[in-house]
């Protein structure tokens, strides 16, 4: 019997209420699926105590602290201080985010930039990678990051739940960023994402669930969970014309390198 390959779910949200009733079973399933580590993303500061409690409960979990671009209403004068304090207080905080730009749902680009910039600065200050949410906003995101390069203020990090084009991907790769694929890579009509999964360098991609959202085929439309990252990795392997072990080894090594994961 072949062994189950080691996987890392590099982006999940199990703090959500729809995991309240069966989280121990969910954890059993991710362990059975070979998921040896997971990175819990944060969307706004009030989540941090509950995410920290989950990290106490599940030793394989690490987490980020940050403010999502669709949660700008949670930004306060003291938010950056709150994020800094949380990151310095717990070595399990391995990233700043989920931060970024989202012009699909909201059009308040200037407001989003005002929340994004101090978080990018904080990541550079603390020498932590960033988790970047970027939807219908590749051009302004690339412009912001490129403008930071000359002063050494462009942090390392990952483009989470990648859904852009290969040309956009190349722009982010040139900045040293990693590309992460979620359940969307299993969707039949996600052709640009398929192309990116084929073309991304072997040492620069991650796999994730973004659970409870974006469950992969054949569970699309249902609650997603970390165990299902195996379906994501399997589809990436098919697209790249390699076996699952190869994708699992590459994505796991890349996640460990970027985030210092166990």
UniProtKB/TrEMBL annotation:
Entry keywords, A to Z: Hydrolase, Metal-binding
Name of the coding gene: dtd3
Residues that bind a divalent metal cation 1: 11, 13, 98, 210
Function per UniProt: Catalyzes the hydrolysis of D-tyrosyl-tRNA(Tyr).
Gene3D superfamilies registered for this protein in UniProt: Metal-dependent hydrolases
Membrane spanning stretches: none
Cofactor binding remark: Binds 2 divalent metal cations per subunit.
Similarity section: Belongs to the metallo-dependent hydrolases superfamily. TatD-type hydrolase family. DTD3 subfamily.
GO MF term list: D-tyrosyl-tRNA(Tyr) deacylase activity; DNA nuclease activity; metal ion binding
Cofactor(s) listed: a divalent metal cation
Keyword check for Acetylation: no
Pfam families: TatD_DNase (PF01026)
One Gene Ontology biological process: D-amino acid catabolic process
Keyword Coiled coil: no
Name of this protein: D-aminoacyl-tRNA deacylase
Naturally occurring in which organism (per UniProt): Parasynechococcus marenigrum (strain WH8102)
CDD domains referenced in this protein's UniProt entry, alphabetically: TatD_DNAse (cd01310)
InterPro entries: Deacylase_DTD3, DNase_TatD-rel_CS, Metal_Hydrolase, TatD-like, TatD/YcfH-like
Record's catalysed reaction(s): a D-aminoacyl-tRNA + H2O = a tRNA + a D-alpha-amino acid + H(+); D-tyrosyl-tRNA(Tyr) + H2O = D-tyrosine + tRNA(Tyr)
GO-annotated cellular components: cytosol
